[in-house]
Amino acid sequence: MKRMVYIIIAVAAIAITGAIVAGCAVNPTKNNESKVISGVSLSQQHSDFYYYYSFYLREDSGKILLDADVRFDEEPYEVILEGCEAEKADFQNLLSIIEKYNVEDYVNKYKKKPLPFEAMDKTTMKTTLYYTDGSDKSADTGEDYRQELYDFFKKLALDYHSKAVSANFE
Asked: Rounded to whole angstroms, how far apart are CA atoms 140 and 149?
């Protein structure tokens, strides 16, 4: 009788341990459906300042705001915008580009490839998606959507350059 109690306790302990281990091994499903894009930025950096641009269009407190710092070969040669109010249609057009090229999936699945060395003056291009929950995710800008996204932001900067913090017309 005493032996049977030990067997039952041992089997119960093994079953409980197995359930705990199995539960820890299961990855919880990630619910990306609750994440809503609230902003998108596109930037390019290089040691030569004329290869630099930075754009950021976002929804903030019911307003659409644009930040831009960009240089052009044609007039206006430089546009710097900070918190410039833009149209809601501009943000919707941006989201259409993000959807068209499936940028959200690309950015969320992006894994940077390790390099044996890093060139200090290498041109880097980043796309960052900002979400309403306060999180953000960045990736090297994909070749398939880079030009269309840059052209979109460039057009916005030119459309709103009259509201620029600084516009250099050399």
From this structure: 13
- Cβ(144)–Cβ(53) below 8 Å: no
pTM of the model: 0.73
Encode the chain (170 residues) as per-residue pLDDT tens digits. Answer: 667 766 777 666 677 876 776 665 555 445 545 689 999 999 998 766 666 899 999 999 999 999 999 887 777 788 999 999 999 999 999 999 999 999 999 999 998 877 777 666 777 899 999 999 999 999 999 999 999 999 999 999 999 988 876 545 55
How far is the C-alpha of 43 from the C-alpha of 69, rounded, in Å? 9
CB of 127 closer than 8 Å to CB of 142: yes
